[in-house]
Amino acid sequence: MPKTQSRFVCQECGRATLRLMGKCPQCGTFNSMVEEIVVEAPKAGGRRPLGLGQSTPRRLSEIESGTEDRWPLPIEEFSRVLGGGVVPGSLVLVGGDPGIGKSTLLLEVATLMAATYGPVLYVSGEESERQIKMRAVRLYEESTERAEDEAEGAEPAFPEDLYLVTETNLETILAHIDNIKPRLVVIDSIQTTFLGDISSAAGSVSQIRECAQRLQALAKTSGIAIFLIGHVTKEGTLAGPRVLEHIVDTVLQLEGDRYQAYRLLRATKNRFGATSEVGVFEMAGSGMLEVKNPSEAFLAERLVNTAGSAIAVTMEGTRPILVEIQGLTSVTTFGNPRRTPNGVDFNRLLLITAVLSKRLGLKLGDQDVFVNVVGGLQVGEPAADLAIAMAIASSALDRPALADCALIGEIGLSGELRAVNQLPQRLREAKQLGFRRVIVPRALRSAEAKVDGLEVIQARSVRDALDAGLRPGEKQREAKSEVRGQRSEEE
């Protein structure tokens, strides 16, 4: 008879112990150890692990490459993140917060794939077939691409090769795949899928690892592209152990605020392309709409000539994006002033505030400082430091920044501006959106800071940048008028 053994497995990192522990010794998570029953099969009749192919060494020059590398999709933002399209035989994991739009996006991808390349199987373990059909009909009815000559209330003409099934048993799912032989399979979600020969519950470490390995073997041996939807924890990371991210070929993260319309699709791992690409979508009634010019969308509601507003040129992958950063300073009513960031790093805000207080003499010790990135974006690169400092100083001095000026630069502790990467791409994007001047750090190579029709102002310190980017106040105007009067008297 096979032997049974009880062990406790951490649901965060996969560490297994023989006794229950309140804190995982590997990742330090509390109350994450769950008991699992392991059945050891006999050595003679044990189940052989799945292989990915023939284990015969071959020369690299003898291996033939595939003639069809990718399947491009009409959703250009989605294809951009994948590296140019869906790769046959790839295993892709899509994660994100609940309600962020994962199922909606993959339902659109499945529909386009079925209409273009052949059979697609959508497997759902959380929703019924009727619920999925209701969502598909809603997306179809609210889409602007509906035919004008189609009768009102008529049944939408969905692709005939799009199949839906509600199933959580992986063995049954594999049987459906063998019968339909689809080009693409979407599993929503991997945490609800289970294997009957494993005693642990669905979503446990053993179930997720074994199911992912079975699907990986299927994708590599048959050439079927498989998309897995994964749950996330309270911290925003993918639920389950990191072993799931190591098994798949690509890990996509759908980010964004639930109360904002824009979503960012970011690749944190990609064996078939770059991990620096980012796709921008807008959550609307007709589904996930592409935002082909995100800079223009983020600046659409900008109020010019207002104190506390600055434009930063950030890089999301290889794409430059212009975003509006707002700053507000007000006298604190508490003992300790607050520093409240929204969309920027808290420690970065503290550093910039300290530089403004020490190097420029701004009195921020009794001021509450609020910084907000418009559109719900998360800006983490240091190139936005100068725009954050400009927004804070503009609000503290009550002097608006120049409306046609964008800012690029990293701030050091001495108040100096440091160079950033990919400067030519940032400058071209600023010119394309109608900005006439850009303040950048003084570059060692001046050729990078030259764009026809764009005034590039090179500043060595934060003080120089603020003097060039802020509109003159009343005191500055009076000082300038006095200087002009003295010059006229001398003449």
Please count the beta strands (DSSP E, at least 2 residues each).
21
Overall pLDDT level: 85
Taken as a percent bin, the fraction of beta residues is 15-25%
Oligomer: single chain
Low-pLDDT sequence parts: 144-151
Question: Please, could you describe this protein's structure?
Answer:
The chain has 491 residues and is α/β, with parallel strands linked by helices. Helix content is 28%, strand content 24%. The protein has helices at 76-82, 102-116, 129-141, 170-180, 205-222, 243-247, 294-298, 346-359, 385-397, 423-432, 462-469, 474-490, and strands spanning 3-10, 16-17, 33-40, 91-96, 120-124, 162-166, 184-188, 225-230, 250-255, 262-270, 278-284, 287-290, 309-316, 319-331, 339-342, 367-373, 405-407, 410-411, 417-418, 437-441, 455-459. The strands form five sheets. A nine-stranded mixed sheet has the order 6-5-7-8-4-9-10-11-12, with helices on both faces. Helix 3 links the parallel strand 5 (120-124) and strand 6. Helix 8 crosses helix 9 and helix 9 (385-397) packs across helix 11 (462-469). The longest helix has 18 residues, at 205-222. It starts with a strand and ends with a helix. The model is unreliable at 144-151 (pLDDT under 50).
